[in-house]
UniProtKB/TrEMBL annotation:
The chain crosses the membrane at residues 12-29, 49-70, 82-101, 107-125, 146-167, 173-191. The keyword Kinase does not apply. The keyword Magnesium does not apply. Signal peptide: none annotated. Keywords: Cell membrane, Membrane, Transmembrane, Transmembrane helix. This is Membrane protein. It comes from Pseudodonghicola xiamenensis. Pfam families: YitT_membrane. It is found in: Cell membrane.
Length: 203
């Protein structure tokens, strides 16, 4: 992936879109009391059992991965990722306070969450960032081995959902798994680390 510096208006809109879509996906999850995988899933799960909100956990879990990003991916990628993590941590509770659902079937919430987060993460990847945490490691592994980032994250998600069974009812864990499959399939089928996006192009 080509990392572009200094940041352009093209990248700014892409990062903003990625943050918004990812935050919207997490909002669907929390409204339906579901979880997802990766770092966001761990943060959502912890927010259900400990007295801190999603945003705080999301930042705390991402902190150790920022060093890995700085060493392996460079300054530009790391700074953009920090901005994305802070953005998601801020926008998610804001959306949760603004959006109200009279009825949100959990299966629909899971599919919408997976689709929104998948599209949001692709936007972040395409503009030289990630949502922090495991996404950084997944990109490094794909670059070095060719093992797709989406499939790697799906393996990690299995651990998250095993833990979710201790917190959520079985039905909630199953719906959460559906959402994670949608998310990771979208990334695996629609994004390659090797692809290069010229500055100023559409998409």
């Amino acid at each position: 992936m080509s990392l572009k510096s200094p940041i352009s208006l093209y990248d700014v809109q892409g990062l903003a879109f990625g943050v918004l879509m990812t935050a919207l996906g997490v909002t669907f999850l929390k409204e339906a009391a579901l979880v997802t995988g990766q770092t966001a899933g761990a943060a959502v799960l912890l927010s259900y059992v400990l007295p801190l909100d999603f945003g705080a956990f999301f930042i705390l879990i991402s902190l150790p991965f920022f060093w890995l990003s700085w060493v392996r991916r460079g300054v530009s990628f790391t700074l953009r990722t920090i901005v994305a993590v802070l953005g998601i941590s801020t926008v998610t509770p804001a959306l949760g306070a603004l959006i109200r659902f009279d009825e949100l079937p959990p299966l629909l919430a899971a599919v919408l969450a997976g689709a929104c987060c998948g599209v949001g993460l692709i936007a972040l990847f395409r503009h030289g960032a990630s949502a922090g945490g495991l996404g950084i490691l997944a990109l490094i592994i794909e670059e070095r081995t060719g093992f797709r980032a989406g499939w790697f994250q799906m393996c990690f998600d299995a651990v998250i959902f095993a833990l979710a069974l201790l917190v959520l009812p079985l039905e909630g864990a199953v719906y959460s798994c559906v959402g994670a499959i949608v998310l990771n399939a979208i990334i695996a089928w629609n994004f390659r680390v090797a692809q290069t996006v010229p500055a100023g192009s559409a998409g």
